[in-house]
Design goal:
alpha+beta, Metal Binding Protein, Guanine Nucleotide Exchange Factor, Chain A, 16% helix, binds zinc ion, zinc, oxidoreductase
Length: 162
């Protein structure tokens, strides 16, 4: 996992604290979120991973390594390792990407309205590191408990078998 970039702050050195707060442009870091520069992500991820996770790209359908995976396990964010989805909520949607009817917990993901490509879609991102995961669609008539389809790129995930 990541280590805090801030030097260990002590009560005797409030100036150091101020300095590091100024360097961190996002206040999100205060609530345990993972904030890295795009350059750091570029070094950590492969070019294909970076394109999907950090540039909201989409892998080609029926090409991802987890599209048809039915093994039991937990799917973690490939960028930061946060546990996002479980095999228990994965279902066969035949859409070409891994599909889940719910995240592991609602606080693991966040939603952004995406109006690119002339459509109104809801983008799904990792709540911890803000990496792009895919989109969520509702009301498609799948016989799942939620009638939601979290359409997630395989390349955004790492599966840990149980
Ligand atoms: Zn993440």
């Amino acid at each position: 996992m990541t280590t805090e970039q801030n030097p260990t702050t002590t009560d005797q050195q409030p100036q150091v604290e101020e300095q590091s707060a100024a360097q961190n442009s996002s206040p999100a870091a205060a609530v345990g979120k993972i904030v890295k520069s795009e350059e750091e992500w570029r070094q950590q991820l492969s070019a294909a991973e970076f394109h999907v996770l950090r540039e909201a790209g989409t892998e080609r359908p029926f090409t991802g390594e987890y599209t048809d995976t039915t093994a039991a396990g937990v799917y973690r964010c490939r960028a930061c390792g946060t546990e996002l989805f479980r095999s228990d909520e994965k279902f066969e949607s035949h859409c070409g990407w891994p599909s889940f009817f719910a995240p592991l917990a609602e606080d693991r993901v966040r939603y952004i309205t995406d109006t690119s490509m002339g459509m109104r879609r809801v983008e799904v991102r990792c709540a911890a590191c803000d990496s792009h995961l895919g989109h969520v669609f509702e009301g498609e008539g799948y016989s799942t408990p939620t009638d939601l389809r979290y359409c997630i790129n395989s390349i955004s995930l790492t599966m840990d078998p149980r």
